[in-house]
Description:
Elements: E1 7-11, H1 19-29, E2 33-38, H2 41-51, E3 62-64, H3 70-84, E4 89-92, H4 99-103, H5 111-133, E5 140-146, H6 158-178, E6 183-190, H7 204-214, H8 223-234, E7 245-248
Parallel strand pairs: 1-2, 1-4, 2-3, 4-5, 5-6, 6-7
Helix pairs in contact: 1-8, 3-5, 5-6
Amino acid sequence: MLLKGKRALIMGVANKRSIAWGIAEAFHREGAELAFTYQSERLKENLDELLDTIGGRNRFPTYPGDVTVDDQLDAIFGDLKDRWGGLDALAHCIAFADRDDLARPLNEVSRDGYALTLNVSAYSLLAITRRAASLMTGGGSIFTLTYNAVERVVPGYNIMAIAKAALEAEVRYLASELGVGGVRVNAISAGPLKTLAGSAVKGISKLRDVTAEMAPLRRNITIEDVGDVAVFLASDLSRAVTGNTIFVDSGFHVMGMASMPTAT
């Protein structure tokens, strides 16, 4: 019960394969009080069905959470303040790029496509943190999800790699700004998982095959692996950990550039 008494908001559950759902299950197991956002009514149906497996949909506050709409964000954190009085942890598991922009060369991404990807995938962390930190009066933990394509070229990741690079820079600056108030900000860099978002990246299945064959632990990771690391980041065990990117990828990031497979 590492999170007993903690209040956490999880943003980005799409289905049972979502990293966000792996985090939710781990948080629930460790005793956290949970709230969720959903991006659309279709995804709300998925979320409700999943919540029924951990105690029932009526047990958890859920909110429409289009991160490009400030009024929705204001409503989420306003209700959480009224309901809980504060917040201890926030999981930002949100990213989006148009499939066509992921498929085309980076230099052919349109100005509008670039702006949309950065707005949803990177600026959203700033918008959410600004509101969440005001509820973390006794300190707290905010973390987001990134990927190793920030450090090396992964064909097919393209514009999303740019967004994740911005996201990681934000983590460091936010950690510096919010540390005086006891708010920690970190990122989890997960290996290639079979998720709804990952399916948009061409060649991701090949990366999973190569990870299982070549990574130091000789296996792919699971959403449960990520969930357990998220528990650590949300708990008091990580009280001195901030501004970091934590790799959960079977050690795949330690492989040299020469051994990095292409994703074509």
